Amino acid sequence: MKLDILAFGAHPDDVELGCSGTIAKEISLGKKVGIIDLTRGELGTRGSVEIRNSESAKASQILGVSARENLDMRDGFFVNDEEHQLKIIQMIRKYQPEIVLCNAVEDRHIDHGKGSKLVSDACFLSGLRKIETSLNGENQSAWRPKVVYHYIQWQNLKPDFVVDITGFIDVKMESILAYSSQFYNPNANEPESPITSKNFLDSVRYRAQDLGRIIGTDFAEGFTVERYLAVNSLSDLL
Question: Rounded to two decimals, what is the model's pTM?
Answer without folding.
Answer: 0.96
